[in-house]
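During the no-cost extension, the postdoctoral fellow (Dr. R.K.) reprocessed legacy sequence entries with the updated structure-token encoder. One reprocessed record is reproduced below for audit purposes.
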Amino acid sequence: MTVGTSETGAATAGAARLLPPATEESIRMLLSEGHTDAEIRRRTGVDVRTAARRRKEGGFGPATRRRRPNRKHPKEQQVQALITEGLSNGEVHRRTGADRSAIRRIRQQLGIAYVPPKLPPLEEKWEQRTRPVEGGHLEWLGERAKRSGTPVMRYREKSHSPAGIAFRQRTGRDPVGQVRAECDYPHCVAPAHVDDEPGRQRTREQLRYLTGGAERPARCRHGHDQNEHGRYQPDGTAYCEACRRERKRSRRTADEQPGGPA
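Re-encoded structure tokens follow.
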């Protein structure tokens, strides 16, 4: 029984080695040219083991053509130029649209190590998003708050005020309170045009006196200390911030009452 099984297996193996003459000729030709067993399988359709067996039987030795030459990427020259300039893989991808794996391969071929992208300094990023406007103003080209349109800027996962950055450039110190421009250009971020709360109030107080306004009383009619709560409007008119807040609070309360304003 064992002998019969062995004879059947030998017959099957012998039949498996029989190939059409044209295929045999193609295999011998490819082996003589130095192609790999995998390449012979791709071109002729025979099993890799069959190609290896023909290699051994014919004494062809190891393959000399290991793989097909890599085709150049359509944007290879452009990618090479940007990598040579020192750009990161992400920036090269953004500018060229080339696949990141191809960019990594080209970088490796050039022998240029990957350099993680560096974030620009806060002031440099701010400058990149401003544009000079006639009259010495600076227009903000970056992100804005949805409701108010106030310029905002994100840097290292934090939100910054472009007007506040402009104020620090001019004064060398951090602002106190809200920073905004006193000029007539909406949301101007020119350093010479912005001021913080104390500076803004000093400028408006000076304007009040220059236009013939009287000195502000020490207390408002409701008794609030004006050294703490006193403010000036852009034209120099004095008002009490505490009274203004109380009026707003009263209006909100009235609106929330049943039967109040819709």
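The chain has a mean pLDDT of 84. Residues 241-256 form the longest helix (16 residues). The remaining legacy entries will be reprocessed before the final report is submitted.
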